[in-house]
Structure formats: structure tokens, C-alpha cells
Design goal:
Blueprint: H1 28-42, E1 75-87, E2 92-103, E3 108-113, E4 117-123, E5 131-133, E6 141-146, E7 153-159, E8 167-170, E9 182-185, E10 205-213, E11 219-222, E12 235-245, E13 251-254, E14 256-260, E15 265-270, H2 271-280, H3 284-295, E16 303-307, E17 316-317, E18 322-325, H4 338-345, E19 353-355, H5 361-380, H6 382-404, H7 429-446, H8 448-461, E20 465-467, H9 469-481, H10 490-495, H11 509-522, H12 537-545, H13 553-563, H14 571-583, H15 590-599, H16 603-613, H17 617-630, H18 636-646
Helix pairs in contact: 1-9, 3-4, 3-5, 4-5, 5-6, 5-7, 6-7, 6-12, 7-8, 11-12, 12-14, 14-16, 15-17, 16-18
The structure holds ligand BES and zinc ion (ZN).
Ligand BES binds next to strand 17 and helix 4.
């Protein structure tokens, strides 16, 4: 499954020139050693809110995260009490964010905001505090609040602006039931600041409570303890007692229903979707048990999934206790539920041990892909996991070619340097698949039992803390490589471009058979005589990806007649087929393409389809016509990416196709 979670910016022009792209990556040893020392000194308090902040001092302002204005060495937030009202008609959130803060030095605290209207700031006694808002950049505007000595609480009254980047407000027609509006948030990477004033850095953790008022006929859920039924007055209260970073604060509001899967897991969705979702995710409880058996206790109590309307820009988002998921994984045959395993695995890799900055993104995603694959293997066997690994490797290899030819060939390193750029731009397949390949290599060197023990210890030891690449590498050296006398070119993996030659190659006999059938078809066997019995979604994906790039109209018609791709209800199969249809100008599928792009906002499907359309003039015209109507239905992260691909200007004249 291609994971185009990020956009590698072929058409993106960075705000800053290459001068600013200097390396946090160059400073390895000295700081690494200092970090290890500091870490050992602060212990491993399970739900520690503060220990990792001590590690954050990369420069004199205590700001090692280039994507936040916060200066954790001066003052940090430790707890948030959010009291907000959601106005679905005005598309606005308004209320108060109150913080317990800890001041370490200086007389102010800096929070991130993006597009927020700040109405006022007071201290714990209600006394007004002076504040300033800095200039606006792609990071938003810093909110600098003066703190008279002894101030340990502040309350910020605010409301969201128009086009808040995290928020997607959906009209009833954009939902499954078509009767009620819907709202969801997407925080990762730096969007939470567009709906809450907050220190929006993955290295800063806080606990939270929230009181959320919504229209009486709607229900609210968050990345926190959640209601399973309606409140009488539209007010919902939430608590998140485990400290989390800002990108994991999330909210969804809609006409929701809940259905349990087992005692610890369940599904939220619109009423008309919830039964199908609960059926599709019947394995959730098993996945959770397997994950715990592999890497230690689940630290977040419940694990639920909310299935959102189709404009959700990602496959899934690992909001703690409540994964946000696209409905495009409801294939009707449980074949796309590896995504749930992935988001569940983030409950350890990402949510317990969190990348300290977006440059360390591979520590979240590479570990999660490895972990996800172990869950899939335990449930479905090595064949199944092997196919997924092989699809992942295919995605990685094409991403590596694209990155090598891009303005940022250094984006193929595991340790990124995204200073001066939107972090979204560097969040590619590399973190996922090269990261997972590195862990598979480590596993192959020491054997599975030792590697599992290492990971179990890693999650327990660093739980509720942030992790830098340096800190991980020192830990790896000390606890895995040295004791087992392993020599490995770690630098080539972490700070080198491309995929090192010692990367393990995933194998799958089932895919060899698929390739054999393709060869038979090319040699003249009619499509309907190919042996496709028992093929899973993955085999079909492999088939579609390995068809000849150029096919005749007769071949396209023959394939579709034999296999009914155009009417497939499987989003992965359909998206892969539609890509071929665009490439081969198979216009019988264009109505379906138009309809797909006008309903689904999942970026990993949009990017290849719109990109393929830009290859020809006819395609480009079609892309613009489709995008004109679809664009208002996409979340800002998808809009941002597709605007780049199509060089879209808002006032583009309409075209006919
Ligand atoms: N955390 C990511 C989604 C994400 C990444 C959001 C970067 C914003 C910035 C999530 O865990 C993820 O990786 N989702 C994948 C699915 C997964 C099975 C690879 C997706 O959305 O496709
Ligand atoms: Zn992920």
C-alpha cells in the first residue's frame, strides 16, 4: 500500500533558501552523550510530564524544534483545561484554553498560534496579562505572554479564524448519512496551533481535560476518555490523564454512534456506517492482545477507532485512545485492516515514545511499520506480512527515485533536516519503509527474541518521553549492538541517502505467481483464463502495479470485463486501476474517476491520480475541471498538496472537458 502521507515537494518552493538548511544532523556525538547523561539523571517516571523537557535545550533559547516557537527551557505547559463551544453553522470554535505552566527561567511563556484570534489572557486570579503576537510565517504566530513572578496558570480566550488548517467542517452532503454536519481535526504535524493556542512541539507533553459544547443533536469525541452515548444538553467532558504532545489532541463532532468490538475496543462512526465498521474491525481486540504480548502493556486503557467521512486526508491518525480512520478501508472483506494494526502500534511507537522533533519522524513511523507488520504476521502469517512488506518496498523504491531527482535529495536520509520547511514536505515513505527495513536488519543480526526484548525494554524505559535520533542511537549501541558484538554501518542508514545494500529484501512467493499470470496474459492468454483464484487485495494490487505501463484500449476493456476493476468497492484496487486508466486514456473509467476524486480526500490516493493527469494536456484539463469542484471538499493538507501538483490558483478560469 503506498504511503504517500507526505508530499516530497517536487513543485514546492521553500520559504527559505538552502542557507537555512543547516544540520542538526552534524552534531551527533557530543550532544548525544549529553542527552544520555541527562536522561539517566531524570529517571523514567511512567507518566512524567517534565523529564524530557530537560533534554530540549539545543540552543540558548531552549528550542531544538525548528517547527515551534516554544522555548521549553524557559517555560512549559504541563496541563491544559479546554473549555470550548463548537459552532457548526459559523464554522468556528471559541472558548478558553487554561494552562498549568512551569517557569524555569525568564518572565514569559511562548505558545504557537496559527490564524487564531486571541481575545485576552489572564492569570489564575483573573488578572489580565500583557501579551504580544509575533509575525506570521508558515509556522504561524508566536504568542508571547508576560508572566509576573509566581504565575503558574494562564487562561487564553480565543476563537478560530476562517480556514483553520486543522479543521475540516463538512456539510451534511459530505457525510455518509447526509443529514448532519461534521467536524474533525487533524493535528499532525503542526496544525493543532490553528485550533488551540499551545506549545505545538512533539517534545512537549501535557495532560488535558476538555469541556466541549456542541449542537444538541451531535456528539463529540476526543483523543481522551470518551462518551459512549449522547449527553442531554450537547456538553461533553473529556480527560486525558497521560501526558501527550499537542499533535495528538484531537476532536470529532457529528451524528455518531458507538458499537463495542470487545471489552476494551470499539468503533465510532455515523449511524449508517457503524455496523459495517464494527464488522470490518472485528480483529481489533486480538490485535491489541497481540501487540501487548509483543511489546508490553497497553498504557491508554481503551482503544477505539472512529471512522470519519471520506474527506479525511489520511488513512489513519493515531490519536491516543481513538484512532481517526478513513472509510476507504471499509472494503467489506477485512482486507485493509493492517491500517488499524498500524495506528494501534503507534500507541507504543509514537504516542508512548515520541519523536522529539519532526526531523526524527522515522522513530515514529519506521518503528510503527515494523510493529504493524509483526501484528499482521501474528494474525495472518508470514505470507500475508511478506506481501505487505513487498508493496511497501515498491513504494519506497519509487519514492527514492523521486527524491533523488528532487530539490531535496537529502530527504532520503532517516534523520531529516527540515529547518525552514513545512515538516509535511519531508514526511515520506523513507521514514516508514527505510525505517522499518533498518529495524528488520537489526532483528536479523541479533535474532527475533533478543530484538523483541530490546524493543520491549525501549518502550518501557522511555515511556511518555520524547526521543531524538541521537538518543536512540546511543541506546542502540549500548543495549543491542555492543552486547551482541554487532558491527553495522549505522551512519549509512541514518545519515546516508538511499537504501543501503544490506537492507533485507522482502520475498513473497504469492507475488511471483501474480507476475507469472501477467506474463501469461502478455503472451496471449485471455484475461478471464488467468488463474486468479484466491487472490487477496494485495495480489490484485501487485497485479495492477505490474501491468505494462502502456496498454491498448482493447487490453483495458478486456481487463475490466474480466475483473470489474472500475466498479470495485476496494479503494486500493480502484485507485491503482484508475491510475492505469488515466495513463492509457481509458475514458470509460473517467466518470468513476471524477466521482472518486469528488468524494475521497485521502491524500495518498489523490496524489498519484492528479499527478498522472498532469502528464498530458488533455489530462491536465480534466484534472483542473475535477479539482475545481472537488477542492472545496478536501481538507487543507490535501488542498495544499494538490494545489502544488496542479499549480492551482484560486481564481483559475473554469474549463470544460
Ligand atoms: N501518523 C500518520 C499520519 C500522518 C503522518 C499525519 C504525517 C500527518 C503527518 C499515520 O500513522 C499514518 O502513517 N497513516 C498512514 C496509514 C498507515 C497504514 C501507513 C496513512 O494515512 O496512509
Ligand atoms: Zn503512522
Amino acid at each position: 500500500m503506498e504511503r504517500t502521507v507526505g508530499w516530497t515537494g517536487r513543485l514546492y518552493t521553500p520559504t527559505f533558501g538552502p542557507v537555512l538548511l543547516s544540520g542538526m544532523s552534524a552534531n551527533t556525538t557530543a550532544i548525544g552523550t549529553a542527552l544520555i547523561f541527562l536522561f539517566c539523571a531524570c529517571g523514567s517516571d511512567p507518566a512524567s510530564r517534565t523529564s524530557d523537557h530537560e533534554l530540549d535545550g539545543k540552543d540558548t533559547l531552549g528550542n531544538m524544534d525548528h517547527h515551534s516557537h516554544a522555548r521549553p527551557m524557559e517555560a512549559v505547559i504541563e496541563h491544559l483545561d479546554l473549555d470550548i463551544a463548537v459552532d457548526m453553522a459559523a464554522k468556528r470554535i471559541s472558548g478558553t484554553a487554561s494552562y498549568a505552566i512551569r517557569t524555569k527561567q525568564g518572565d514569559h511563556i511562548i505558545l504557537d498560534t496559527d490564524g487564531l484570534v486571541i481575545e485576552g489572557v489572564v492569570d489564575g486570579a483573573g488578572t489580565k496579562l500583557p501579551y504580544t503576537l509575533g509575525d506570521s510565517t508558515f509556522l504561524g504566530r508566536p504568542l508571547n505572554v508576560e508572566l509576573p513572578a509566581g504565575t503558574d496558570r494562564i487562561a487564553i480566550s480565543y476563537h478560530t479564524g476562517d480556514h483553520a488548517k486543522a479543521l475540516q467542517w463538512l456539510a451534511p452532503e459530505q457525510t455518509a448519512d447526509k443529514k448532519h454536519p461534521f467536524l474533525f481535526t487533524q493535528g499532525q504535524a503542526i496544525l493543532t496551533r490553528s485550533w488551540i493556542p499551545v506549545q505545538d512541539s512533539p517534545g512537549i507533553r501535557f495532560t488535558y481535560t476538555a469541556k466541549v459544547s456542541v449542537p444538541n443533536d451531535l456528539m463529540a469525541v476526543m483523543s481522551a476518555s470518551n462518551p459512549q452515548g449522547r449527553s442531554s444538553d450537547g456538553t461533553y467532558r473529556f480527560t486525558m490523564d497521560q501526558a501527550i504532545p499537542a499533535y495528538l489532541v484531537a476532536l470529532a463532532v457529528g451524528d455518531l454512534a458507538f458499537k463495542p468490538v470487545d471489552a476494551r475496543t470499539g468503533v465510532y462512526a455515523e449511524r449508517g456506517v457503524v455496523d459495517q465498521a464494527a464488522w470490518e474491525f472485528a480483529d481489533m481486540g486480538t490485535m491489541l492482545n497481540i501487540a501487548e504480548r509483543l511489546y508490553g502493556p497497553y498504557r491508554w486503557e481503551r482503544y477505539d477507532v472512529i471512522v470519519l467521512p471520506p474527506s479525511f486526508p489520511f488513512g489513519g491518525m493515531e490519536n491516543p485512545r481513538l484512532t481517526f480512520a478513513t472509510p476507504t478501508i471499509l472494503a467489506g472483506d477485512r482486507s485493509l485492516t493492517a491500517l488499524v494494526a498500524h495506528e494501534l502500534a503507534h500507541s507504543w511507537s509514537g504516542n508512548l515514545v515520541t519523536n522529539a522533533t519532526w526531523n526524527d519522524f522515522w522513530l515514529n513511523e519506521g518503528f510503527t511499520v515494523y510493529f504493524e507488520s509483526r501484528i499482521s504476521e501474528a494474525i495472518h502469517g508470514p505470507d500475508y506480512a511478506g506481501m505487505l512488506q513487498q508493496l511497501g518496498r515498491q513504494d519506497l523504491l519509487s519514492t527514492l527515485v523521486r527524491i533523488a531527482n528532487s530539490a531535496h535529495p537529502e530527504d532520503s536520509k532517516l534523520r531529516l533536516d527540515l529547518k525552514g520547511r513545512d515538516p509535511d514536505e519531508g514526511m515520506t515513505e523513507v521514514a516508514y519503509e527505510k525505517g522499518a527495513a533498518f529495524l528488520r536488519l537489526l532483528e536479523s543480526k541479533v535474532g527475533r527474541p533478543k530484538f523483541d526484548g530490546f524493543l520491549r525494554d525501549y518502550f518501557a524505559r522511555f515511556a511518555f518521553q520524547s526521543m531524538t535520533t541521537d538518543r536512540f542511537l546511543s541506546h542502540l549501541q549500548e543495549h543491542l549492538l555492543e552486547p551482541n558484538h554487532i558491527t553495522l554501518d549505522v551512519d549509512a542508514w541514518v545519515d546516508g541517502v538511499g537504501l543501503p545494500a544490506d537492507a533485507p529484501t522482502p520475498v513473497s512467493d504469492r507475488f511471483n505467481k501474480v507476475e507469472h499470470e501477467i506474463q501469461r496474459w502478455i503472451a496471449g492468454t485471455p484475461a478471464r483464463q488467468l488463474d486468479t483464484t484466491g487472490w487477496s487485495t494485495f495480489e490484485w494490487m501487485h497485479f495492477l502495479r505490474h501491468l505494462p505501463k502502456a496498454m491498448t484500449e482493447e487490453q483495458m476493456v478486456e481487463l475490466d470485463k474480466a475483473f470489474h476493476f472500475t466498479t470495485s468497492g476496494n479503494s486500493e484496487v480502484l485507485a491503482a486501476w484508475l491510475e492505469s486508466c488515466i495513463r492509457n486514456d481509458h475514458d470509460a473509467a473517467f466518470v468513476r474517476l471524477d466521482q472518486f476524486l469528488n468524494t475521497v480526500g485521502r491524500r495518498k490516493f489523490l496524489v498519484p491520480l492528479y499527478t498522472e493527469m498532469t502528464a498530458t494536456e488533455k489530462g491536465r484539463i480534466m484534472a483542473q475541471a475535477i479539482y475545481r469542484t472537488a477542492r472545496p471538499n478536501y481538507h487543507s493538507v490535501s488542498v495544499h498538496t494538490i494545489d502544488d501538483i496542479l499549480a492551482w490558483k484560486d481564481n483559475q478560469p473554469p474549463v470544460n472537458f
